[in-house]
Amino acid sequence: QQMMPSSFSDVYLRFFCLLSAVAIVTSLSSQNRSRRAWLTSIPSLALLVPQYANAAAAAEDAPKTKFQRYPAIRFIAALGDPTASSGTGADKWGLWRDDPGPRGVYLNNYESRLAKTGVAPAGWPFQKDDWWVEEHGLIMSNPGDLPRKKYDKGTKEILPYKRYVVTGDREVTTILTVFDDGKWELQKGSLYDVTHLPCRSARYTPGADGPGTCTPPNADTKMFPVKPGAEMPAISGCAKQDYAVLFVLGEEA
Fold it and tell me: What residues form DSSP beta bridges with 79?
């Protein structure tokens, strides 16, 4: 006999886990579909598991903690001890609301597509002393700040924390809580468990020689693509900071 989940958060986590599992099976069945292609198909898979939505509605006595799924996957750039399940520094994390890879510019196209105007074909501005690169050698848009406060519609208060549903597209899908003071905690697993290993990202800023010395043409493009889980390449004249990438499926409603 299948037991009813004890809370709304349990229902939604199981719902998200099942959607992720179905998406993985779907992606493996088609060799011609890229990772980003099947990610965009995940929302439609909700139609395959209506029983989870019904279970949530039927849990009359469960706490009213609900999570809303995003129309498309978002991405957190995180810093921290990979083995930790909580820590500080979330005020220095970033959030991409759209997949920055397809909107990026390859390092070897910097001079022709980015240097002259300072604006990528996709419309995002290039910050010459603070720029990001992903695992295929694409210069990306800089992430925005990760929201760490939640507006409570019921009490009309601003709460000093925000909850997200995150996954590394492996075994763990869980709730990440980030606090206004920069603290963070995972309901289950470690930061490594919710890191998507194939996605690599690093932030490049001027090194010891100062501004103007850290430029994309200094990169050795033969170092790309980067293997899953490996560090991003160093670039001459630049200080480098690697970031873990977390898939964000939704947030607390």
Answer: none
